[in-house]
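User: I'm writing a tutorial on reading structure tokens. Could you give me a worked example: one chain, its sequence, then its tokens, then a sentence or two explaining what the tokens reveal?
Assistant: Sure. Here is the example chain.
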Amino acid sequence: MHSIAFLWVGEDTSIPSRLVESIRLVMGDSVNVIQLSDKKTPKVFGVSRVQRSDLSSFIMVARLQAYLQIKESEETIFFCDADSLFISPLELNFQDTNVLLSKRDVDGMINDSYPEFYPEFTGKRMTEVMPFLFGAIATRGDQSDFFDSLLNICMGLPIRFHRWYGDQYALASLVASGRVNYGLLTLEKHLAIVKSEQSSAQISLARDFGVQMITFKGPASKIYMEGTLAQLRGLLGRNLK
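And here are its predicted structure tokens:
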């Protein structure tokens, strides 16, 4: 059985609630949904379990600490961002590896001054410094050593990486070391980025092309999650509320 895990910290759980509802709409109870949280965040309706731990106030460190807590010995785990919706059932193909990563497919010069100055980025392209995205990672079996290595790398970085970019930067370093045998997820299927509300026709077309999860990126895009979820409910003829 697949498990889907996400990190969420904070009193307002409206964003992860939409993620979980979409999972139940398209996959029912065929997957476990694991909420990774601190000791205070409310339980999100529909999750299979909440795994709580003491987390850093720095989000990059907290994410790696939370992912490290999952030590399933047999299950496959799909780690995703909470600002996502599943529109089709999750399918994973590990073949001869136990870690699947998302390789960046859009490149360009990185802004070394946003949100603060990063001298490591000066004159560099995004694929040079952070060739992998962190919004979709899949593991099979106990991969706590993988996340422990990422956490150790991140903790050794300047504190600005604890606030921003630390997970992706650490992942690039670990992969470059040759210590990770990994395969690749398909971005068009497992991490399709959208920046607007999706109509039922758009969702239907995406499903026809095999898209499994869409992620809402950009500071304003989160407002489009509820409208898109409503379209998904109508398309599937289901309403869990």
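What the tokens reveal: The chain is about 35% helix and 20% strand. The chain has one domain: 2-186.
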